[in-house]
Amino acid sequence: MQITLLGTGNPIPDARRAGPSTLVRAGGASGATVLIDCGRGVLMRMIAAGAVPPMLTAVFVTHLHSDHLTDLNDVITMHWVISPVPQTLRIYGPVGTKAFVEHTLAALAPDIQYRLDHHVDLTQGPMVEVTEVVPGDEFNLGSGQISVIVGATDHRPVEPTVAFRIDDGTHSVVLAGDSIPCATLDALCLGATAYVQTVIREDLVKLVPSQRLQDILDYHSTIEQAAETATRAGVETLILTHYVPGIAPGAEDEWRAIAAAHFSGTIVLGDDLTAVEL
Ligand SMILES: [Zn+2]
Ligand SMILES: [Zn+2]
Predict the structure, then answer these.
(1) pTM, 2 dp
(2) Of the bound ligands, which one is closest to the alpha carbon of residue 38?
(3) How does pLDDT run across 133-159, given as a tens digit for each residue?
(4) Which of 6, 33, 118, 236 has the fewest other C-beta atoms within 10 Å?
């Protein structure tokens, strides 16, 4: 199983970091390629990671915050236009995802019509199938050997929010999205090989005299909290992403040390396209 941090940024534009998105490749050729969230610049990072939209088995959406979804329209359009034969883009997300996708397709209507009118071999618009999921749902991907479990997270007042656990029979990874620690996240992570958590650096955020920034402290995991979740769940590898603020060049070891004080396993963090092979 390979996990690639496509975008490690946060909502604020960053010249070095794309918006939140992660790519999981599991089960080899007969397995699945899953994109988790679609932040700013996702397709630039996906192509750099050697993947194009038609290769996606599914897109998972953790929640409907714009930083996690802003480029879903690009994924939908390019999946449609690049695919040599018509194929369905499968999207799994919390309740509300269907309406979001419908609205996105409505916004894309002029573009869809331009392309249908111009390309004779394009005979239908994007085929998108949305499955709204709730905590406790389980489903399979690929030729069936990739199993997925959906768990509840806590990012209130943003609701609903979900995490996904992907298991290829040998390894498993939990994509937590934005969340503070909670019992349901602990349960989903229990015994997983890897756990990907979006994090903030509480000490640095607290230095910024902006109420709007202080507001984010109550609905994100700090590095310490992510490390504690990893320890409670007994995961082998903790993968941190969605850094607030962005990790300054050369400060990776400082961030790693904060996590290491609460977690003794492998800690992964870094620039966009940081990848881990489990
Ligand atoms: Zn969020
Ligand atoms: Zn976010």
Answers:
(1) 0.97
(2) 2
(3) 999 999 999 887 999 999 999 999 999
(4) 118
